[in-house]
């Protein structure tokens, strides 16, 4: 019996020793700023952020250095200056990315088509042309866009806002691309050139329509007689001239 009690005592001591060891491990998760203890490292991480909170917007940070950098967004401080053009930046990474505009360096390469980008964010945007991803969705009509800027400009079609103004004639347009196209009516610029006949156009869609005169493509078909046309306006004229009288007689 004595042996049995002794063995039982040993097991209790081992059990208590094991518990003490586990408790010691749990108490190792301690905040160095306020000495508060946590049983899980993720709880400590969450707690530490409460010591580094932006008093302007409430955003929290794991390190005080991160908070210090963030505060520049509110103060407007730009301590990183380009030695080539004197342009200043809020963050060091922004300066490094800007410097590539002078050096021509493009370290971010697309594995699909070998396109090279100066910034990782530009590469991520480019990758959507391969994946088809369109993360920005219009809440009004459900249209989706690859870039946030595309969504912002699309919203103008719902609000009626036309923030882009032509400085020559005062016309207002809803999208920047439309303003660029409109400006060619003043400058006479025609950057889109037909490789078949060298004819030039101010708009890409006009060039695409023109190319059908060379390819013979006629995507617009008359529902009455099946005749094809290269442009929708030509189809409309055909219907009015050829089939309008026929429909009137049938009625």
TrEMBL record:
<protein>
    <submittedName>
        <fullName>Zinc finger protein 436-like</fullName>
    </submittedName>
</protein>
<dbReference type="GO" id="GO:0005634">
    <property type="term" value="C:nucleus"/>
</dbReference>
<feature type="domain" description="C2H2-type">
    <location>
        <begin position="220"/>
        <end position="248"/>
    </location>
</feature>
<feature type="domain" description="C2H2-type">
    <location>
        <begin position="29"/>
        <end position="51"/>
    </location>
</feature>
<feature type="domain" description="C2H2-type">
    <location>
        <begin position="164"/>
        <end position="191"/>
    </location>
</feature>
<keyword id="KW-0479">Metal-binding</keyword>
<dbReference type="InterPro" id="IPR013087">
    <property type="entry name" value="Znf_C2H2_type"/>
</dbReference>
<keyword id="KW-0862">Zinc</keyword>
<keyword id="KW-0863">Zinc-finger</keyword>
<keyword id="KW-0677">Repeat</keyword>
<feature type="domain" description="C2H2-type">
    <location>
        <begin position="108"/>
        <end position="135"/>
    </location>
</feature>
<keyword id="KW-0238">DNA-binding</keyword>
<dbReference type="Pfam" id="PF00096">
    <property type="entry name" value="zf-C2H2"/>
</dbReference>
<dbReference type="InterPro" id="IPR036236">
    <property type="entry name" value="Znf_C2H2_sf"/>
</dbReference>
<keyword id="KW-0539">Nucleus</keyword>
<feature type="domain" description="C2H2-type">
    <location>
        <begin position="136"/>
        <end position="163"/>
    </location>
</feature>
<dbReference type="Pfam" id="PF13465">
    <property type="entry name" value="zf-H2C2_2"/>
</dbReference>
<dbReference type="GO" id="GO:0003677">
    <property type="term" value="F:DNA binding"/>
</dbReference>
<feature type="region of interest" description="Disordered">
    <location>
        <begin position="1"/>
        <end position="24"/>
    </location>
</feature>
<dbReference type="GO" id="GO:0008270">
    <property type="term" value="F:zinc ion binding"/>
</dbReference>
<feature type="domain" description="C2H2-type">
    <location>
        <begin position="80"/>
        <end position="107"/>
    </location>
</feature>
<feature type="domain" description="C2H2-type">
    <location>
        <begin position="192"/>
        <end position="219"/>
    </location>
</feature>
<feature type="domain" description="C2H2-type">
    <location>
        <begin position="52"/>
        <end position="79"/>
    </location>
</feature>
